[in-house]
Amino acid sequence: MEVEIRHLRIICAIAESGSLTRAAKTLRLSQPGLTAQLRRIETMLGGTLFERAPQGVRPTAFGELVLARSRAVLPAIDDLVFGLRAPAQNRTLRIGTVNAPLLTGLLTWLDAAHPEALVTTVTRGAATRLVELVEAAQLELAVVGDCPGYELAAGPSVVLRPVATEPVFAMMAVGHPLAAKTEVTLTELAAEDWIAPPPDDDRIREYWTTIFHDAGLAMRVRHEAEGTVLLDLVLARRGVSLCQATFRQVPGLAIRPIAGDPLWYRHLLAWHRDAPFAAAAAEVVEHARHAYDEASRRNDAYPAWLAGHTAAGGMRRE
What we know:
The protein is α/β, with parallel strands linked by helices. It has three domains: 5-82, Arc Repressor Mutant, subunit A; 88-164 and 265-295, D-Maltodextrin-Binding Protein, domain 2 (3-Layer(aba) Sandwich); 166-263, D-Maltodextrin-Binding Protein, domain 2 (3-Layer(aba) Sandwich). The protein contains eleven helices and twelve strands. The strands form three sheets. Strands 3, 4, 5, 6, 9, 10, 11 and 12 form an eight-stranded mixed sheet that branches. The chain is globular, with a radius of gyration of 21 Å. The two termini are 40 Å apart. This is DNA-binding transcriptional LysR family regulator.
């Protein structure tokens, strides 16, 4: 394992908070999860970064050195990734996104609505970082998401507007025994090996684990992976995983609803109150919802689920 940029941000957040408890809240992590991450970071760097104090934690001498270098590096990295603000005559609309199905449809509308602007995108695995970049005016708009009980927090300068809430589905290889069912249960899923993304700032993995725990079950995670690696492992029948209901259909992949719809995911837009989008917020949200409607047909399972759940609310338009 190598030190990543997010590790430097964790170190800085702990130092700024002066407490693991407060830093965990800021980072939207559980305190045990943050403590474990800090230990891994210290192991990678080869020294203790913080020591306990009566009022919380304080940096060690080695920690002060790492902090000084982290605080010097992070602003430069943000400038490298996002660039300096473009001059007014070369307007750039910088859009951030997590793995959002509505992005491409929204970009099509933005290109048509703002032909004078250069629309660019940047992807992040966790929504929390994108909200921070919106707050820092380094992004004009972000497509983000959260889960019940783990809602995104934002400062007063950021607007968070829900677009749609959808169920979370299970996915497995077509040849998997559960693929023969029209829907699967948490109990059936708990009996399988799992492929899951590693815990991150968005706490989605923690949300999944909590739902299983509350049902008296546990996720038996055998592989931690993301993106195409996770999908390859599912297709190779190394285990099952979860996905958004709008997940794109892939040959060899079976997407199945979960009985009782115990897990949910909410899509949101985030923008700065002073951003160009603020004046046309209602229009932007409406086009995002239209893009989501188009994306809801990316697999066969979700339209079928919607048809059977219309009376119960189905895809909840916010």
